[in-house]
Amino acid sequence: MANVREQPILRELREETATMHGSQMQVSPDEAQLLSMLVQILGAQQCIEVGVYTGYSSLAIALILPESGRLVACEKDARCLEIGKKYYERAGVSHKVDVRHGDAADTLRAMIQNGESCSYDFAFLDADKRAYDQYFEMLLELVLFLSDHLVSSPHMSRRWGVIVIDNVLWQGRVADPLVDDPKTVSIRDFNSKILRDSRVNISMVPIGDGITICRKIWS
Ligand SMILES: C[S@@+](CC[C@H](N)C(=O)[O-])C[C@H]1O[C@@H](n2cnc3c(N)ncnc32)[C@H](O)[C@@H]1O
Fold first, then answer.
1. Entry's CDD domains (predicted)?
2. How many CB atoms lie within 10 A of CB 124?
3. Which of 27, 63, 121, 159 has its CA 20 to 30 A from that of 44?
């Protein structure tokens, strides 16, 4: 497949999203391209997105997932989900997307209670910024980690779950000590926490609004 950001259906979804009444959010083709490449490079099969909006990133991921792959797509806004579902259908990927309407924290908690810990390869976190830490803790539980003695081959690719976190630069506000609104403080505190977190390796990438790529290294 060509680069996902060049797919006409993604362009169409982006245009429809831009014309939505009251829409202030922007979707990022560069981020979606990176996400889909990561999913492909990892050979990910089981993915989660927290905060779907109209489905731009989830569609980019679903397009690249193999037929056996699945993306659990968590979103609280039914109107946005209807747009996403229309595009999954049109792109022929709706069988790969498991849409979960409701509060994402409730959905993730239910997945853990349902015995799904350590069974996801890839997660994308992009919902309420004040709850990042809460989502992150549950995603860390849900993504895979196989310690050395459980890995049959040193070349096995799916040993570590990866979590990608969006908006970590928050348009530069996290670096401005004079900005102290709740969302900025929450993202700033979250960035500091995961920098020191021995359960993960991280790399912050300054594309879009800043994303952190986080690899689980401890279970
Ligand atoms: C920035 S948008 C997501 C954009 C999407 N990830 C993309 O790249 O195309 C954030 C979304 O998170 C959703 N959201 C915020 N809080 C939520 C919650 N508690 N549970 C589920 N979804 C939530 C919002 O409704 C919004 O659609």
1. AdoMet_MTases
2. 28
3. 27
CA gap 165, 151 in Å, rounded: 27
- Please give the biggest Cα pair distance in the chain: 54
Residues 6 or more apart from 192 whose CB is under 8 A from it? none
Angstrom distances, CA of residue 202 to CA of 18, 80, 130, 150, 162: 32, 31, 20, 23, 10
Nearest to 47, CA basis, from 35, 29, 56, 55? 35
Q: What is the pTM of this model?
A: 0.95
pLDDT computed for residue 103 by the predictor = 98
- Ligand 1: which residue has its CA nearest to atom 2? 53
Question: What is the band of 19 on the pLDDT scale with cuts at 50, 70, 90?
Answer: confident
pLDDT, residue 70, reads: 98
- d(CA 139, CA 108) in angstroms, rounded, equals 7
CATH of the domain at 135: 3.40.50.150
- Please tell me whether the interface predicted TM-score (ipTM) of this complex is above 0.90: yes
pLDDT confidence of residue 78: 97
Number of compact structural domains in the chain: 1
Q: Residue 128: give the domain boundaries.
A: 4-16+25-216
Specify the residue with its C-alpha closest to ligand 1, atom 16.
128
> Does the Cβ of 129 fall within 6 Å of ligand 1?
no
Q: Is the CB of 174 under 6 A from ligand 1?
A: no
Checking if the pLDDT of 46 tops 60, the result is yes
